[in-house]
Design goal:
homotetramer; 303 residues; Beta-lactamase; five-stranded antiparallel beta sheet; two-stranded antiparallel ribbon; globular
Chain lengths: 303, 303, 303, 303
């Protein structure tokens, strides 16, 4: 079934192929070929369906926030909510307004402010933060060649003033324990991880699989925990377009400005798309359309 | 199964019985006995499970916004999104701030501003707005004795300055077509509808039942439409606590300041709770706890 | 001296004669001839200097807020500051945002929200509010033909949704004691008063004259009180352009969307200008330029 | 006259001696003796009147913003307003909200964001920024022993996360040209300058003296320029309490969290007060009361 559907989706994308624009917020990312397009879907039975550029690596960027949160969750569990909320923000991902009004507690872990707090937590709990986090991701993906793209990380550092503003504002409210520079450094590396659609889909499949990795059956989070994080992706995974994605696609997911999107159908499948052109809210145009078509064509959503 | 679970839930509520406070925002509603508590769950197979005060009518208040939206949807369909958004607001239900910043387009139809726009749409499409809307609700509930509580409607009118401010602000932006006074009058009546937990659960069951009413199998909305409205309830149904409800309960739903909550497990059941004491966000304390327990104990959520 | 200067000013206006646009916020006001231009300056010695259309009446609109405040001040004195502040708002004159954040206490009496509170105070203290207020203004101007323009008042009522929103929001916070409709009605009448530049300059001359009217030497407010209200005009008289006016003109003053501006040089003179084309902040383009030239050419400002 | 008045003021302060609290925002400043109190007034004729601790140096902090602006003004003149506004902010001095909404253009040069832009301008125009700026201040005060307090500067650096957030946010909008770290370093040094009340009053006396220094008659700014900066101090010199100061004191001025305030009566005098206890808006309690008494007792204000 999925083979056919992915094929149809790919064909339906033609009219929208030039909509949106590659993000220019990070110089190194602006160099990506805007015509790239790939989808990979893996079922909880472990069957793989890929199409297009689904085996080419790209910068996962904000999608990494879910992996970082999952990793932090294994250390501090529900205590994390003392430092970051679970509510949609209703504001752009990098806004400082709400953070100031709400005295330094970010609305959720998927806006930048929240992700910086999560990064701070990881720094406090990991011996070799970058290496340990990378190992965590490699375990999820069952693939040892996944890596940071140092060029992208450094490129982001040269323009990351908005994130530096957020980190300093958090620090001024006492919601960053480590050095601001260290937190930003870790955060930029975390975002620079490169994966293929297939690797992404496999990495996130534990969210569809009651907390267990697909290939090794390793319990990453409890069944109850993945339900909660799925719910969080549903309400907060797409910046100020979370409602739109939820309304049209009806699945929990997370996007990144590298053009990637991951979505999860609990107990059924995990799917990752990649198409670098973004709409004005910072989400992949073709990715969102593809996933809307996917749930329409399969007739399956969580609702 | 559900009989036992509802029983256990009821027993688990004792420690929280005095948490929160009855809403004092509408004089007439402040008179409610705060100790009331009822749950009714109806499966898509039509099996009923009730406990406590589940057959006593109460003011459904904002829960009516979902019914009004559904009714408006039958007239204007997706065009409704030209006048109101689908994004969570991140602000209290009656805030004017966002409405001013966003030039009169309410974030979603479940905050007051959005519900006033929906009321305006119904006024433009119904011959006898109050009667016709009541008929719609009676059809959903399959019950002809459901009615407005005029005393509550008038009571709200005497204190409804915040809603009058919202309606006038909407009108100043051209997003109300009818007379402001008429829109407010209809809105206050709509909110004053009284139903039991059982009637509420039955009325909302078409959201769990692919758009069809339970008893008469009448198609109210298409399967695709109910999916979308379920998704909307998931992200926007609980004011600025939508994330919290989604995180803890994992089901789409809608609350009202009368103390009611409705939640939907698509293809499985619809459940309504009533307990008048509200937390500071305006949602029923026992209602939220009950539903969290329900999804924990059944092990079933949409995620 | 002033004769020559006013003449030069009038001649310097030519290049800017078509800048800005007549306000279209009130239908009746949109009909004004945009080319009107007048200045009248009266010294505290009672010497008059007029030029252009300075003897033609126009709608004083928000300039009336200073007169209303002065009148209210004679009843409640400094107690007024329990209900309205003395700080510049930094927001457009009709914004609801700040009012909501600051729980119904308007920043100052010259934004609309503040003026509505002042109107409410007058309603509570005057037997025949409209008549009594008009008498107060006539006394200040020493002219019995000054009157409301009922057509303008009614015209504003038909479009005054934003003000209705403000009044209702104030009422929801308990900062309006009278009926919202009555407050709005009085406010629209107050704003509809028509005066010539000469009448305006004379009416406001007590602010330059230690609190005494020019012609009858009647003490309206104490010397200390007029100093304070002058200070308030300095910081808050020009909506979110108060700083600009203060920076360029260096005198306390107040503008109205009818195109009028009054400015005061304490102990020296009072000047009123009229030119209906407004800049985007709602202040008269030629009025602001004229007054900037006036203080430049006379070499006199309060600083 | 002034001798007697200053004496009376000092005596009137007793009941308020313990009101407010020393700022704890900079560790080194929190060590100040809270009972310090001094006033120095110098007339444009060069006659000095001092009382209390008026010859003891203290940290001038934000008062330095006026001196930095004056210095920058000598280089770029009115062009400065392309990068910073002249409007009161209506927000706390260190707020990021408005800066984000208004896309990186600070409301005025006296809130921290604006002062950071001014610091950036000075960095771009001075060969030895710290030394050159210090020389400028020494010239104004006609005193060569005035200096930075490096301990205070470094102390502020250890806690200056909010300012770092502002500087990074400005940089993200392209409104900082130099390195963020350099701008912050210069800014912290600038704020750490220590002066006595007498030195402060003398330094600022050119604002009362048509732009010329008192002792050397050196033209720092033109007469027109000092009028404009006086007007700016009037509307923006006291954070979100500018209206209050203007209303009660009626003079342009500037405060600092070290407890100092400078006020100017154009063509008459310049006065500086020092009393470390601050009200909740960050302005010296006794300083504000003293200056209110001063204008009341002298019967002289600009209005």
């Amino acid at each position: 079934m999925y083979t056919q559907i992915l094929h149809e989706i790919q064909q339906s994308m033609a009219p929208f192929a030039n909509d949106g624009a590659v993000s220019n917020s990070i110089p190194e990312l602006a160099l990506i070929d805007p015509s790239k397009f790939g989808i990979h879907l893996v079922t909880t039975q472990g069957i793989d369906y890929g199409i297009g550029d689904s085996n080419e690596r790209f910068s996962i960027q904000s999608i990494s926030k879910v992996l970082a949160l999952s990793h932090a969750f294994t250390f501090v569990g529900e205590n994390i909510w003392n430092r970051v909320g679970v509510e949609p923000s209703g504001n752009p991902f990098n806004s400082l307004v709400q953070l100031e009004y709400e005295k330094g507690k970010p609305r959720n872990p998927f806006i930048n402010a929240g992700a910086l707090v999560v990064a701070d937590i990881l720094l406090s709990h990991l011996n070799n933060p970058k290496k340990d986090f990378l190992d965590f991701v490699r375990t999820l993906a069952h693939c040892n060649t996944i890596n940071f793209n140092e060029k992208v990380a450094l490129s982001e550092k040269t323009v990351g003033y908005r994130n530096a503003a957020l980190a300093n504002l958090l620090k001024s409210f006492g919601n960053i324990n480590n050095d601001v520079t260290d937190v930003l450094d870790f955060y930029f590396y975390q975002c620079s991880i490169e994966m293929t659609c297939k690797e992404l889909a496999h990495s996130f499949c534990f969210f569809a699989n009651k907390g267990k990795t697909l290939t090794q059956n390793k319990q990453i989070l409890t069944e109850s925990q993945v339900k909660r994080l799925n719910a969080l992706m549903q309400t907060c995974g797409f910046y100020d377009e979370a409602g739109e994605f939820s309304y049209k696609v009806g699945l929990p997911g997370k996007s990144g400005i590298g053009g990637g999107i991951v979505a999860i159908h609990p107990q059924k499948y995990c799917v990752a798309t990649w198409a670098p052109r973004l709409n004005e809210k910072g989400n992949s145009v073709l990715g969102m359309k593809s996933l809307e078509l996917l749930t329409t064509k399969t007739g399956m959503s969580i609702f």
